[in-house]
Amino acid sequence: MERNNGTKVNCSMESPAWLTQEDEDRTAHQCQTPFASVLGIGRHGGQGAPSSSRRANDLVDSISSTADGIIREISGDQPPKFHQQAIAFFSGTASFYATSFASQLMQHKVLGISTGTRPSVIPTAIGIATVAAGSWMGHLAGVGVTSAFGTIKDKYLRGSLAESILDQLPQMRLAAAQSIHEMARPLKLIMRDDLSRGERRERNQAWMHAARVCVLGLLTYKMVLRSNFFSISTSSYTHKGSFARVGIPATMNYASPSQRIQIEKLGRRWGCHTCGSRMIFSKLSTKFHGDHIPPVSVAKQMSQQTWRKFLGLTVPQKFYPQCVNCSGKQGSLLSKAVNEGMRNLSRAGGGKDGYFHSNFRIGHLTGGAVAILTTSISAQGTQTPEAVVSSSRLRVKSYQDWAQERLRKIRSIFRI
C-alpha cells in the first residue's frame, strides 16, 4: 500500500520499537481494506480489538475479503477470480431452479398439490423441503466449479489458458465430479451399521455440514430474497396464487371504481397472483380484474357450513389482481364445478387443474448465493477434492460461530 506521498507501507510486518502510537494508528488505518474501513474493522477485527475476538468477525472479514478481491480484479492487480465466482453463482442458481421445477412438476402431475391444498401446511412444508434440497444442490454446484477452476488456474497465470482450454475440459469435469463425490460420500454412511469411530465422526460432521447449508439457504430464501415457501407449488385458481403479494379487503360485491384503479396498479407492479404475468405487451385498457379470494361462489358455499352459522362467522375475502386470461379460466372451472354439483367448490381449480408456472423468480437466486457463500477460492493452483471439501466445511462452520458469538453478546447485554 502507498501513502499519499508515494511511500509504500508494509502491512505484513510488525511495528518497529521506535514507531510512535500515532504512527501505528496511521499505519493501521492505511492497511485497512476499503470494505473494512467502512465497516469499522481494522486488521485485527476492530479498533484495538484483541486477538481473542477475531472469531466474532469471521463472517464480516470473509465477505469483506471477497468484495475487496473483486475490486482488485477489476483494477487489474491480480488474476480474475470473479469469473469463477460468476460461474459458481450461475451454476448454483441453475441447480436451484432445476430442483424447484422438478418439485413443482411432481406436485402438479403426481401428488395433485397446489397453493389451495388444505391443510395449508402441506404446500408450505413441501416448499421448505424443496428450498433445502435446492440449496444443497447449489452448494454442490459451487464445490464442483471451485474444483474445476483449480485445474486451470496455473495455466491462466502462465497466459496459456486460451490455447489449452478445450484440452482441460475432461480434467475439469473429473475434478468437479471428484469433489462432489467427496462432499456427498460421508452422507451415504448412514446406510451402514458397521462403522468405525472415525467413520461415525465423519458421517456426523458431514450431516451437520449439510444441515448448515440447508439452514443458510432457507434464511437466504425467506429473509433476504423475501420469497414464500408455498409459492413453489402450482397456483390454484380458487385460492391465493403462487405470485400473490398484496391484497385489499373485499366484500361479496364487485370492486368499486377506486378499488379497480388500485387493483390495476398492483397488477402492473406485482403481476397476476395466479400466473405472475404483468401483461406488459397487452394493449387492453384493463389488464387486471379484482379476483375475490375465496371466490364469491366458494365463499357462499362456505358460509352455509353449520359451525359457521352457529358461531355467526362470515368468510373474510380479499381482492387480488388477476389477469384477464386467468380470470376467464377461473370462471370456466367454477361454472363446470357448479353444474356438476361439486360439494366442495374450494377444490375446483386446484391440484392437477392448477396453473403450472415455470417463471424464473428472485427466490431461485438462493442457489447462486449459497454457492458463493459456501465455497472459497484458493490462491494456490489445483486442490485435492479433500482440500476443497474441508475448506468449504470450515467456511460454513465460521458462519455458525459468528452467529453464536453475536447471540452470546446479545444475551450478555440483556443478561438473558
Walk me through the topology.
Elements: H1 21-30, H2 34-39, H3 58-75, H4 82-111, H5 121-150, H6 153-157, H7 161-184, H8 197-224, E1 248-250, H9 257-270, E2 288-293, H10 296-303, H11 306-311, E3 317-323, H12 324-339, H13 365-373, H14 385-414
Helix pairs in contact: 4-5, 4-13, 5-7, 5-8, 5-13, 7-14, 8-13, 8-14
Strand order of the largest sheet: 1-3-2
What is the first-to-last residue Cα distance? Answer: 45 Å
- Give the tally of β-strands: 3
Largest sheet descriptor: 3 strands, antiparallel
**Which strand-content bin applies to the residues?**
under 5%
Category by helix and strand content: mainly alpha
Shape: elongated
Overall tally of structural domains: 3
Specify the number of helices: 14
Q: What features would you describe in this structure?
A:
The chain is built from 14 helices and three strands. The chain has helices at about 20-30, 35-40, 60-75, 80-110, 120-150, 155, 160-185, 195-225, 255-270, 295-305, 305-310, 325-340, 365-375, 385-415, and strands at about 250, 290-295, 315-325. A three-stranded antiparallel sheet has the order 1-3-2. Helix 8 packs across helix 13 (about 365-375).
